[in-house]
Amino acid sequence: MSEGPHVLIVDDEIQIRRFLRISLEANNYRVYEADCGQAALAQAALHRPDVIVLDINLPDMEGVEVLRRLREWASTPVIMLSVRAGDLDKVSALDAGADDYLTKPFSTVELLARLRVALRHVQPATSDPVFIYGDVQIDLARRLVTRKGEAVKLTPTEYALIRLLVQHAGKVLTHRQILKEVWGAQYVDETHYLRVYFGQLRQKLEENPAMPRLIVTEPGVGYRLVGE
Amino acid sequence: MNDQRPDPDSLLADIQRYEARQQRGRLKIFFGMAAGVGKTYAMLHAAQSRRTEGSDVVVGWVETHGRAETELLLAGLEQLPKQQLEYRGAVLEEMDLDAILARAPQLVLVDELAHTNAPGARHLKRYQDVLELIEAGIDVYTTVNVQHFESRVDAVRQITGITVYEKVPDSLLDLADEIELIDLPPDALRKRLAEGKVYTTERIEVASNNFFRTGNLTALREMALRLTAEHVDHKLQDYMQAKRIAGPWKSGDRLMVAVSPSPFSEEVIRWTRRMAYTLEAPWFAAFIETSAGLSERQRELLAQNLELVRRLGGEVVTAAGEDIVEGVLRLAQQRNATQIVVGKPLQTRFEDWRRGGSLVDRLIRAGSDIDIYVVSGDKAKRKTPLRAPFSLPYFQSTWRDYAGAAIAIGCVTLSLLAAHSVWPWISYQAVGLIELLAVLLVAVYLGRGPALLAALLSAISWNFLFIQPRFTFAISALEDIILFLFYFVIALFAGTLTARLRTRERQAQYNADRTTALYTLAHETATAVNMDDVLRTAIEQIGQVFAADVAILLTEQEKLSHVVHPASTLAVNEQEFGVATWVFDNNKPAGRFTATLPQAAAQFRPLSTPSRRVGVVGICPRQSGRLTFDQEVLLETFTSQVSLVIERELLDEAAQESVVLRESERLYTTLLNSISHELRTPLSTVTGAASSLLDENTVLTDQSRNELICEIQSAADRLNRLVENLLDMSRLDAGRLQLKLEWCDISDVIGVALRRALGKRTVQVTVAPDTPLIMLDFVLMEQVLVNLLDNAGAYTPADSPLEIAVMVEKNWVCINLADHGPGIPTDALARIFDKFYRVPGTLAGGTGLGLSICRGLVEAHGGTLTAHNRDGGGMIFSVRLPSSAAPPPVQEAIL
Asked: What mean pLDDT do residues B729-734 have?
């Protein structure tokens, strides 16, 4: 059996680390552990993991601080673990460069999915720029979006939004990140732009816009294009 | 016999006095008839023997007058440094009260009790220092001569011709635990004086011819002996009473002295106090306030007299009434006085006649079973009677008023003269009537004096200018003479009566103002909703009524708070805070115009009720004058009213706290009961399922193994929901819930909630197409919907559908969640949003928190959450959220 991806788990609770180690090793991951921020940075430097699972509350320093220091020299994908929905910390963690987050308690299935997404983004973009979800096709090369085989007319802004989501498929994007990328840095607080445009996008792309399956809202955080 | 039993009240008073004495320091007075009898010597001697017994003795102040034998006795006694006070360039030495209080010895020696302190000391008088020392639990030895006692001052003046200014209240004698009389026969004292043992040689001559005459000394000696004897007698009676020894019980006498704004009331008061002391009877002073006004000087005299009453330990009772005799008798009856003491009246016989007999005559006639004492005053003082006591309305007119009256009459006369020359048919009788009107108007606006002047002037001018023969003072016709005379008399009477009416009216106005002020204060403070409001109102009202700057300080943990109430208009600096603290600690007024710390800029009064001290009020009249007696009384009424209201507020606050405490205790208990159940159920599931999985002896099929794992999973979900609910609840309760408002799309919120909350249930969602974005906390509103969906999921059949409808009303967005379940009994509907409430008869599981949290969160958004049963079965939960503001416009990205 070939050596799987290396993952560093940073959490001060030994029970969490133990259950993650068992679940991840069963899925062919190579697991390292750290119980505090200092140890996490040391382990990351020593083992150069492919992905890091980082708890937002650590005994010696904030998870966000660990992330910030890590980002000074490594672009390793990081998945934050937060305790509560509505936690402002996780938004700042995402804005500071975290790739994704999970709210405790979470299922192993969810974690594995996020890990796969995070790892995929490390690989150079595939040559095939066509994204297919159910009956929706998005061809970035041809700037063409179709639903059930028919071309969907999108405004330039709508297209910019969907392209951004596709490029980060499966990954959560914060309001700030999207606004900054599409509208520009001075618009980062205009979240209502997103409400309006994502509403329109859903009308055009979703089967049932009231219960979206493609473009999912992450409450208080941002949006995610469901990648799988 | 009834009299054989000690009266319970007096026993109680004895016990209280005894208890107070236990904590208080003991006061011993070395008492003599005159200077030089050896009081200081005796005091030092006694102090030395206390010292050898091992007591901690210090000298606070001793005056040896250079006497060698006395100075010898000072040896070995610790002498505290004296306080240096600078006053108008001179440095004066005083006893350092604070140093003694800080040193806290067992016994302190304080010579010359009657001494008046230098300006700048805390108290005006040294005896006040002594009182503070014994209050602080320090024993005091002190010396004083008989002539200094307040009640003996008159007698001393009558005997020796010397007016004593340094006075000590007689109540100090009552306070003293021990009195030691230092007696010396007059001849022996004169011998000592001649030997130079009392004064230095040059003063001997003067002294021995004046004060130290044998006759004087004998009288003073008798006075001292009698005072001591009286005191000993009292002690004996106290003792007999305490031990229930049968003996002469206190008589049932009760003395009442009528006080008036007269300089000689002072002597009457002192006389009453002496008499009461000898009779062992309680006494009090009565003042009858008539509608007649008092002059500035009279107010001051009255204040002094009443202050004297208080200093002598008497109570002041005031009553209002037009007739003094009636008022005095009424008070006497109300207060069960057996004797009334009045001063010999100074009124003239005319006034007596006018009022239906002299005050004394009428008192004697009306008060049949009450003894009346009539005390005559000092002749010297009678030469300068200001006004008879209880005088007519006093109305002060200035020279301007007189000038005004003259000018008014002049103008009227001139215009009448002009009118008469133009229209000769205006008769001189009509002129007279018009002039009379002018006199009346003068009386109304300018007072009695000017009215009299106007009457005189108008009569003369009328006669001279109008009555035939004109332009002479002569009158030809007899009837004109009669007319003229009557005119004069009528003008005088009408002028006087009108002026008096006017004065009465002003007095009534003044009284009404006072009543209104009190009423306003009472009303405003009664309607104040909280402490802050009460204090603000009190400061405002006091400031307004007394035209003064006011500050209120409250207590904080039994101590006076350093912070003045923010509404205060009077700044309290460190020094004045010291005064305020003294006031609070001693529960007596101090500061400006009082006997304690008079150098302070403001006066401070305690705010206290019978049960506790609530704070201190500082007041500084903007015009630098002293408050009048009326104002003092009013201020006292104000402060006691304010104190009561503050106490009421304090009690209210305490009561509210205890209600909140009880309520939170009840909730806490409910919470614990409910939660322990909610926690245990999933925990037992997890423990049970896990142990089955681990147990090697239990043979499980793959299917049952899976089922057990699913049970663990759902138990964990349930626990997680509980924790989330508890966290939400505690955030709501703590008021720490901060909404992170942003523009949200309601259908987006619904979508997210559905994804999280629902399993297989079909939900039909209809959103009105024109639904605007509204300001919400996305996460919290999602929580509301999840809770409502969970609730619907739990209490309706699993296959019944749910409907969500979003509607737009004017300025509101309404989210209705309808189910097809059994609904809720009407009587339970009102309570389902209460914390921990669960509809009776519902399934196990659930804490009764979910809906309560929902309502809390919706209300935090300024919205409402209601529930009602549908007509066709099932119920509707209705979330209404405000959407008054339109979202800002949206613009395309520039790409």
From this structure: 77
Residue B351 shares a structural domain with residue B433: no
Across A223-227, B45-49, B286-290, B679-683, the highest mean pLDDT is recorded for B45-49
Report the SS3 class of residue A98: coil
Chain B nearest CA to A211, separation (Å): 5
- For residues B793-800, average pLDDT: 84
Give me the domains of chain A, ranges plus CATH numbers: 6-122 (3.40.50.2300), 130-225 (1.10.10.10)
Nearest partner of B37 among B181, B142, B183, B227, judged by Cα: B183
pLDDT at B206 over 70: no
Min Cα distance B590 → chain A (Å) is 59
Residue appearing with tokens 């493609």: A214
Of B740, B751, B895, the CB nearest to A217: B751
Alpha carbon of A199: minimum distance to chain B alpha carbons (Å): 8
Reported in sequence order, the residue ranges of B359-464 that DSSP labels E, i.e. its strands, are: 371-375
In a shared domain, residues B45 and B145: yes
Domain, as residue range, for B578: 548-646
Contact B395, B446 (CB under 8 A): no
Which of B716, B779, B892 comes nearest A155 by C-beta?
A: B892
The residue with tokens 């009013």 is B634
Give the pLDDT mean for B721-733: 80
CB nearest A210 (choices: B727, B747, B780): B747
Alpha-carbon span A221 to A212, nearest angstrom: 17
Q: Are B63 and B45 in contact (CB under 8 A)?
A: no
Token pair 């005994």 is found at A59
Asked whether the predicted pLDDT for residue B725 surpasses 70, the reply is yes
Place of tokens 């390292």: A32
pLDDT at B572: 84
Amino acid at A71: R
Q: Tell which residue, B153, B33, B49, has the closest CA to residue B109.
A: B49
pLDDT score, position B202: 59
Determine, for residues A212 and B751 on separate chains, whether the beta-carbon distance falls below 8 Å: yes
Domain count, chain B: 5
Q: Which of B472, B504, B536 is the last residue of a domain?
A: B504
Query: In this structure, how many other beta carbons lie within 10 angstroms of the beta carbon of residue A197?
Result: 22
Of these ranges, A49-58, B266-275, B462-471, the one predicted with the greatest mean pLDDT is A49-58
pLDDT for B354 equals 55
pLDDT in the model for residue A83: 79
Same domain, B407 and B349: no
What was the pLDDT predicted at B16?
Answer: 63
- Its ipTM equals 0.87
pLDDT given for residue B517 in this prediction: 78
Q: Does B894 touch chain A (CB under 8 A)?
A: yes
Contact B888 A192 (CB under 8 A): yes
What band does B110 get if pLDDT is binned at 50, 70 and 90? very high
Supply B595's token pair.
């006997």
Residue with tokens 């890990």: A115
Strands, E assignment, B437-570: 548-556, 559-564
Query: Cβ(B548)–Cβ(B622) under 8 Å?
Result: yes
Are B890 and A84 inside 8 Å of each other by CB? no
**Arithmetic mean of pLDDT, B729-747:** 81
Task: Identify the closest residue of chain A to B764 by CA–CA distance.
Answer: A210
Residue B712, domain member (yes or no):
no
How far is the alpha carbon of A140 from chain B, nearest alpha carbon, in Å?
16
Which sign does the torsion angle of CA B871, B872, B874, B877 carry?
A: negative
Which of B502, B484, B493, B294 is closest to B401 using CA atoms? B502
Residue to test with chain A: of B723, B730, B743, most A Cβ within 10 A:
B743
Nearest of B861, B860, B855 to residue B835 by alpha carbon: B855
> In this structure, what CATH number is given to the domain that contains residue B823?
3.30.565.10
Written as six digits, the tokens of B251 are 């008589």
